[in-house]
Write a structure and sequence with these properties.
The chain is α+β, with helices and mostly antiparallel strands. It has two domains: 173 residues, Phosphorylase Kinase, domain 1; 194 residues, Orthogonal Bundle (Transferase(Phosphotransferase), domain 1), CATH 1.10.510.10. Strands 3-7-8-6-5-4 form a six-stranded mixed beta sheet, with helices on both faces. A hairpin with a 2-residue loop joins strand 7 and strand 8. Helix 7 packs antiparallel against helix 10. The N terminus and C terminus are likely disordered. Its EC number is 2.7.11.1.
Length: 448
């Protein structure tokens, strides 16, 4: 959910200000959201087909009926039971077991969030709502507000099939990966029709909030690059570990800790990438318009490098300070990629596109390097895009020249003039009478 942790939602039921922009041949289902792990205004592409490779919950019975035996068993457990995942889902892979995750009961999370009170809401969206809670740092037992460790509790909407699917994907993927640039999933709850996830609390909220929310202090170019590099590391890890395709890379899913370290969140759409020598996987079209790669939108073919396209869009948002899709912009500028990409490699045009909030802190050299990388990430053919490992290497190079040189031409002239005057002063200096000159020793000549 995009708006989370450090930034509270003022109106929890309102749709985001950015309107949906439907692509030519695709109907979009707008999921108004301000939630942790789901963007502000998620636009899901309608398709009810179920992927054969995904773990499925049969729809033939109600959620309550499916979970009743599990719920009865859970009532016997304590509020902080651990280890086993009590909510098996029918699949060819068998029972899901995540020994490193904490099993919370609904009662425990209810207590940790003060009965899910409205003033603890951090965000909301298609999956449900996210609440701020407090638990003991060691046992994860619920504690009073302000005591122990803050956590984010994502609570699904009852009877939400989409919520159940995303709950499963998060547990399957985020639950087994530990990386400095991935949000840590601490535990889960699955009782009757209640599906909840518990995450570490990210104090600074989402990148989206910092880029586009009114009242936020503008991020410096150095901080933006730091965030981009962290996000790139997280994405590169996913691509190189098990070829996991994140499928929903966007500014609202990049969360920030107090030091602006970036962590990827919301693995509800994550999918294992191609195997056995295949270049792509064919899947239902689902994601966020404006960030989804063109080949995926057009054909349903999902490549590992489809994520690279989304990364390029976010990097372009960082450089320009504009949203991926914004219908409030003039005609021809609604879609950021369509508007900006043709001019990215034209230095005069590039200067005009740089976020005004950056002022003069960004050198044209660094801006052009970033623009070149963005241009490559946004190639229409996924084969022509760089890998995330290559993207990371370029970003680190750009980071080395991120600051604009402090010495302007005027300063250089002043320094040269000062040097010339010092040279002239030293040349005419009397060897008999020295005053703070030469070797820095003050002396007075005495008559012989």
């Amino acid at each position: 959910m995009g708006n989370c942790f450090g930034a509270r939602v003022n109106n929890h039921t309102s749709l985001p200000s950015t309107k949906a922009l439907s692509p030519p041949e695709t109907m979009l289902d707008i999921k108004g959201s301000k939630q942790y792990g789901l963007e502000a205004g998620r636009r899901r592409m309608n398709d009810s087909k179920k992927e054969s490779s995904e773990i499925a919950i049969p729809r033939s019975t109600s959620v309550k009926d499916r979970q009743r035996p599990v719920a009865e068993e859970n009532k016997k457990n304590s509020e902080t039971a651990t280890h086993k995942l009590p909510c098996p889902v029918p699949s060819t892979a068998g029972r899901i077991v995540k020994p490193n995750l904490k099993e919370f009961t609904f009662a425990a999370l209810k207590k940790a969030t003060r009965d899910f009170k409205p003033d603890t809401i951090l965000g909301e969206g298609g999956f449900g709502r996210v609440f701020k809670g407090w638990v003991d740092e060691n046992t994860y037992a619920p504690s009073r507000a302000g005591i122990g460790m803050a956590v984010a509790v994502k609570k699904s909407n009852p009877d939400s099939y989409q919520g159940q699917q995303e709950w499963e994907a998060e547990v399957n993927f985020l639950g087994k990966y530990l990386h400095p640039n991935l949000v840590r999933l601490l535990g889960y709850c699955c009782e009757e029709d209640q599906f909840l996830l518990v995450y570490e609390y990210m104090q600074k909220g989402s990148l989206e909030n910092h880029l586009f929310r009114n009242g936020q202090e503008p991020l410096s170019w150095g901080i933006r690059l730091k965030i981009a590099i962290g996000a790139a590391r997280g994405l590169a890890f996913l691509h190189t570990s098990e070829k996991v395709i994140y499928r929903d890379f966007k500014a609202s899913n990049i969360l920030l800790d107090p030091d602006y370290n970036a962590k990827l969140s919301d693995f509800g759409l994550a999918k294992l990438g191609p195997m056995n020598g295949n270049s792509h996987v064919t899947t239902r079209i689902i994601g966020t318009y404006g960030y989804a790669a063109p080949e995926y939108v057009a054909t349903g073919h999902l490549y590992v490098k489809s994520d690279v396209y989304g990364f390029g869009v976010v990097l372009l948002e960082m450089l320009t300070g504009r949203r991926a899709v914004d219908t409030n912009k003039p005609a021809g500028q609604h879609n950021l990629v369509e508007w900006a990409r043709p001019s990215l490699l034209k230095k005069k045009e590039l200067k005009k596109m740089i976020d005004p909030k950056l002022g003069d802190q960004l050198s044209i050299k660094a801006a052009y390097q970033a623009a070149e990388l963005i241009y490559k990430c946004l190639e229409s053919d996924p084969k022509d895009r760089p890998s995330m490992v290559e993207v990371l290497a370029v970003l680190e190079m750009v980071d080395a020249v991120k600051e604009k040189p402090k010495s302007t031409k005027l300063n250089v002239r002043r320094q040269e003039g000062s040097s010339a005057r010092r040279h002239q002063y030293n040349y005419h200096k009397s060897p008999i009478h020295q005053k703070n000159g030469g070797n820095g020793v003050t002396s007075q000549a005495r008559p012989h």
